[in-house]
Amino acid sequence: MRRTTDKYHLLRIFCQVVDKQSFTEAAKYLQVPSSSVSKAVSQLEAELDQTLLYRTTRSMALTDAGNIYYKQGRRLLSDWQALDNQIKELTGAPKGLLRITTPVVLGQNLLSKIALDFMLAHPQIELDIILSNKVMDLIEDDIDVAFRTWTKLSDSALYKTDMLQMRLVMVASPGYLQEWGTPSKIEDLKNHQLIMFKSGTDMRNHWGFIDSQIKLRGKMYSNNTFVLMEAALRGVGIANIYSHFADSLIASGQLVEVLSDEIQSTSTVSALYRQHRRTSAKLDCFLTFVQQALKAGNV
């Protein structure tokens, strides 16, 4: 009887070679001889009757078939690990690694504190926190939880839990308002110095007013909320930022809210994840902790 090939073993070695871009480094990581790694890749190619890697003495590159096999294979390995973790978590306290991504400002100002409190409360769970404004793919990038801020979220096969509602507020320093005056209606903003958010090449000249489509021009643009907030504090102009970041500065008198009667669109902070919460104790434990912290206002 012909022995069945261990495709999981071969796939794991192949993916490590691609990840490390080296047969030698993959062998070190897997703690096996380099000859075993080379033999495993060759065996996999023979099984598939396809060349997966172009090899030279100095470099390697994926073929079209290799690229497809690597991407799909990485997903299979991730799913296999998730299955293992799910079974192991059926007994005992939640444990293991969670990979989390969040936009930079949201992570710095809000979620980092919650994550640190979570680790102190649950030392058996490890966190890998990635702060990035890039929209990462949960499967390809092996992400367990992605926090996203949105006004309208596109349809997705991912699970979602809404965590927080945030509204935009227009703020300026008392010194700026003393010099330039306080706007009494939206049209007055055309005569003011405006500090505006910029995402890539998108300069958001339309602030989120529900009842007005007025087009505005900024004096200053930035893709970082804290830069906008610091500019407002220094008297550069009027900024339009989320209330969660501005409330304490308004309460202390360092910033003043203007045009507070104008209704702007709100944004939702949501957690997106690949598997249902009930199938992963560590995932459910973390999301529950975040929900409770936000509800209690302990951030």
Number of individual domains: 3
CATH top-level class of the largest domain: Alpha Beta
Give the CATH architecture of the largest domain. 3-Layer(aba) Sandwich
By DSSP, the count of extended strands is 12
Query: Taking all residues together, what is the mean pLDDT?
Result: 84
The largest pleated sheet is described as: 10 strands, mixed
Q: What is the first-to-last residue Cα distance?
A: 63 Å
Helical content (DSSP H or I, runs of 4+): 40-55%
Give the ordered list of helices and strands.
Answer: HHHEEHEHEEEHEEEHEHEEH
> What ranges have pLDDT less than 50 throughout 5 or more consecutive residues?
none
CATH-level-4 superfamily name of the largest domain: Periplasmic binding protein-like II
Count of DSSP H/I helices: 9
Backbone structural class: alpha/beta
**Which shape, going by the Cα principal axes?**
elongated
What share of the residues does DSSP label as strand, in percent?
A: 15-25%
What is the CATH topology assignment of the largest domain? D-Maltodextrin-Binding Protein, domain 2
Radius of gyration, rounded?
Answer: 25 Å
